[in-house]
Design goal:
- The chain is of the alpha+beta class and 386 residues long.
- It has two domains: 3-75 and 90-194, Galactose-binding domain-like (Jelly Rolls, Sandwich), CATH 2.60.120; 207-384, SGNH hydrolase (Rossmann fold, 3-Layer(aba) Sandwich).
- The chain is 26% helix and 23% strand.
- It has ten helices and 17 strands.
- The protein has a six-stranded antiparallel β-sheet. Strands 3, 4, 6, 7, 10 and 12 form a six-stranded antiparallel β-sheet that branches.
- A hairpin with a 4-residue loop joins β6 (126-131) and β7 (136-142).
């Protein structure tokens, strides 16, 4: 049996996956060692489910790499139910003594781009390395340079190979607007996969972002440039990305699912997808959903900080003042009731007003993602006292 057949057989047979309670794998290096197979060229391939993964928070899922559990009902809109298969925010994080890192993957859906976002951004992966001398994460490679290889059964996988300095910490960011059907990490045949070091921030529970297409990652050029992922690297905190393009509308059931995550902080960024009043957009309004949602989240997770974000206004001018004032009124009401650990993020900190930070007047390009990361990162740092 050739290596492809060995790996695929293992992928199908392996069911004893790690348990996840807060977006971080309870992971043992023995899992990787036991799940390895060496191919004819001497590359040791390890199936993705045996690797340390962050951003995956539920075991009761339809597919392993899903962002939400299988029991999401029709009380949550269809966009969320479809896009739970996207892997936005998920990543592999580890160290290795290999002199190269390879990733072989098959997307969950057909790989394609949008009119305002490239195929690399929607369906690709990218790799970062931690430069200990510089004290920061540096981009290493992305799958736009990947070659396609044939798997048994007629599937094609993309393979990315990156030279590596032994002992460096690695992040592999998974696709934003697609999922993972199959994934393997390749290293030298005698190399080990080791746990990442403790977080330099001291924060081990994830920051959970819930919101719209902007949170989801539209229109970053690649996975690691979605603003929640930038914040994760800058603050050295784990993140969970529950952005759902066009579909983050704060249904009460979503507060139940999100409250299952043992988070360090929750960030709410849903206003682009919501109307002010129920008469304008039934079941998707601030009037109907916002206060019920946040009260239930706080009841289920008392004391956990919450960031309440206004709607980003690319050009300024107060286009969204009515919704932002409504959310500010909820914030003021909760503070008056004695709520602690609430952080309010005004829209004027998110863009510079020039429009240069977007592709279409709404969705951030890479420049816009950087400014969003600065604004949201400051709010998260305040919430976590970093």
């Amino acid at each position: 049996m050739n290596i492809t057949k060995i790996v695929l057989a293992f992928s199908v047979a392996f069911t004893a996956v790690a348990a996840f309670s807060s977006g971080i794998a309870k992971w043992d290096p023995a899992m990787a060692a036991e799940g390895a197979a060496v191919d004819e060229s001497g590359v040791k391939w390890i199936e993705g489910r045996r690797l340390p993964i962050e951003g995956r928070c539920y075991d009761d899922v339809e597919h392993f790499y899903d962002r939400l559990p299988a029991n999401v009902t029709t009380n949550v809109n269809g966009g969320v139910r479809n896009m739970k298969h996207h892997t936005a925010g998920m990543l592999l994080r580890f160290t290795t003594d290999s002199d190269f890192v390879s990733v072989k993957f098959v997307n969950y859906n057909a790989s394609k781009g949008f009119y305002h976002m490239s195929e690399l951004g929607t369906s690709g992966i990218d790799i970062y390395r931690y430069d200990s001398k510089a004290g920061k994460w540096l981009f290493a490679k992305s799958s736009h340079l990947a070659k396609a290889v044939d798997l048994d059964g007629g599937e094609k996988a993309r393979v990315v190979r990156c030279p590596w300095k032994k002992g460096e910490e690695c992040i592999v960011n998974l696709p934003l607007y697609n999922g993972i059907g199959k994934l393997w990490l390749g290293v030298a045949k005698d190399a080990k996969i080791l746990p990442p070091p403790p977080r330099r921030s001291g924060i081990e529970k994830p920051v959970v972002f819930y919101g719209t297409s902007i949170t989801h990652g539209c229109s970053a050029s690649r996975a690691g440039l979605a603003f929640p992922s930038i914040i994760g690297r800058r603050l050295d905190v784990p993140i969970v990305n529950l952005g759902f393009s066009g579909s983050g509308v704060m249904e009460f059931e979503m507060s139940e699912h999100i409250a299952r995550i043992d988070a360090s902080c929750y960030v709410l960024d849903c206003l682009w997808n919501m109307s002010l009043r129920a008469s304008e957009r039934p079941l998707r309004s601030v009037e109907e959903n916002y206060e019920k949602f946040i009260r239930n989240l706080r009841a289920k997770r008392p004391g956990v900080p919450i960031v309440m974000a206004e709607q980003s206004d690319v050009f300024g001018g107060g286009r969204f003042d009515s919704k932002n004032k409504a959310v500010r009124a909820i914030y003021d009401k909760l503070v008056a009731e004695g709520w602690k650990n609430l952080v309010y993020l005004p829209a004027d900190k998110m863009f510079d007003g020039s429009g240069e930070g977007t592709v279409d007047g709404c969705h951030p390009n890479d420049l816009g993602m950087m400014t969003m990361a600065s604004a949201y990162g400051d709010a998260v740092a305040k919430a976590l006292s970093l």
